[in-house]
Amino acid sequence: MANLKVEIAGIEFKNPVLPAAGPPVRDAKAIKDCEEGGAGGIVTKTISTKAAPVPRPNMAVLNRARIVQMYNTVKNGKEQTLVKTAYRMDQGFINTELWTELPLEQWIEKELPSLNDLTVPLIVSVGYTPDDMKKIIPLLKEFDIDAIEFSTHYIEPGIITDIIKTIKSIMDVPVFPKLSPHHTDLLVSQAKEAEKAGADAIVAINSFGPTLHFDIYTRKPYMGSEFGFGWMSGPPIKPLAVRAVFDIARNVNIPVIGVGGISTGKDAIEHIMAGATIVGVCTQAIIEGKKAFGRIAREISEELDKMGFSSLEEIRGLYIKEMGAGQKVRIEGGIARLVEDKCTGCKLCERVCQYEAITMVKKEGIRHLLPEINGEKCAACGLCVSICPTDALYLEF
User: Fold this and answer.
1) 184 pLDDT exceeds 90?
2) CATH of 6-58+90-323, one of 3.60.20.10, 3.40.50.10380, 3.40.190.10, 3.20.20.70
3) Torsion over CA of 98, 100, 105 and 107, rounded to 10 degrees?
4) In Å, how far are 334, 339, 343, 369 from 395, measured between CA atoms?
């Protein structure tokens, strides 16, 4: 099995899969469940000076119809199979979760003292302003904390430097700012600013929004916020998160912690190949439960074995290295090609082709129809290749 041990800022993790700040780490009991579920380290829910006034309701899947469809087709009756299959395929998630709904005093007097026997590294997430840090950080000094993460979700980008300097002036501990994707054009400059101010790693990204999701029959929002606004997470934001990791990792010299849309080992590997050192998982653990952390870690190891890699170090930033200065942008030429013995005749390629370049035809000796590709019409858009469930199509240039 591949070696999954990893180090950030002198902190050693047994595997790179951590919970991201959120409901799965809402208190000491939940945190210990994450540890038992196989997390390589812990990040607490974000602690601030006041308990969060969390609206109710505050969590919902974005595509319930897909869950219902899967429920009606899964025959074995195993809930976990349904949950993993339905959610990991295409589900998004919307929430109005804020920071911790527990008061600061409860974290200091009960929750953090209960974590003294934790066997994995502990990262405490805090928020939000320099003044908040002056109240919170001194109270954390008595605990065995490996690092401090601070959220930038509700602050102006310009005060990140002040927050880092404030934390480090009070407590000698690695500091990891967690960047939000509200201003995607500022992510790299924020990361550089944080590095210059003394940050030890960058966490990217937080949930995306504001968003809106409501029931068209009742006109009622799924979220309990004033207008039903929420924040999106889960698989739909993974491409945004991976792009953020890629851009940040190739512009700073400190580690990046990739967060956003990770529900499988392959998702985690994509983050790591884009430049992440470790990854954070939240939404998948909400849907699947705390065993998601250990499962994802095992899948990382299994995938690395399949690809012939023995450690995370071998794949970290591999996409950055192989892309170099970028790839040649083609604007003409190319055609989709078929590997006949892989095709099952499902007709998906014909259905999605926007250029009417694919026609299903009968071929002697083959029971099902095969796609025939018209080279004059094919625009080499790649959609048929990406949707083919059996890898029977490829692009040729």
Assistant:
1) no
2) 3.20.20.70
3) -160
4) 7, 11, 15, 20
Task: List the CATH code of the domain at 335-396.
Answer: 3.30.70.20
- Three-class SS string for the chain? CCECCEEECCEEECCCEEECCCHHHCCHHHHHHHHHCCCCCEECCCECCCCCCCCCCCEEECCHHHHHHHHHHCCCCCHHHHHHHHHHHHCCEEECCCCCCCCHHHHHHHHCHHHCCCCCCEEEEECCCHHHHHHHHHHHCCCCCCEEEEECCCCCHHHHHHHHHHHHHHCCCCEEEEECHHHHHHHHHHHHHHHHHCCCCEEECCCEEEEECEECCCCEECCCCCCCEEEEECHHHHHHHHHHHHHHHCCCCCCEEEECCCCCHHHHHHHHHCCCCEEEECHHHHHHCCCHHHHHHHHHHHHHHHHCCCEHHHCCCHHHHHHCCCCCCCCCCCEEEECHHHCCCCCHHHHHCCCCCEEEECCCCCCCCEEEECCCCCCCCCHHHHHCCCCCEEEEC
Q: Could you report the per-residue pLDDT of 261-273, keeping only the tens digit for each?
A: 999 999 999 999 9
Q: Is the pTM of this model over 0.85?
A: yes
Residues 6+ apart with CB under 8 A from 147: 8, 9, 11, 121, 123, 124, 173, 174, 175, 176, 200, 201
Q: Which of 335, 333, 328 is nearest to 395 (CA)?
A: 335
For the segment 53-80, what is each residue's pLDDT rounded down to a tens digit?
A: 999 999 998 877 666 666 666 555 555 5
Neighbouring C-alpha atoms within 13 Å toward the C-beta of 277? 24
State the residue for tokens 């739909």.
236
Q: Which of 145, 137, 146, 204 is nearest to 164 (CA)?
A: 137
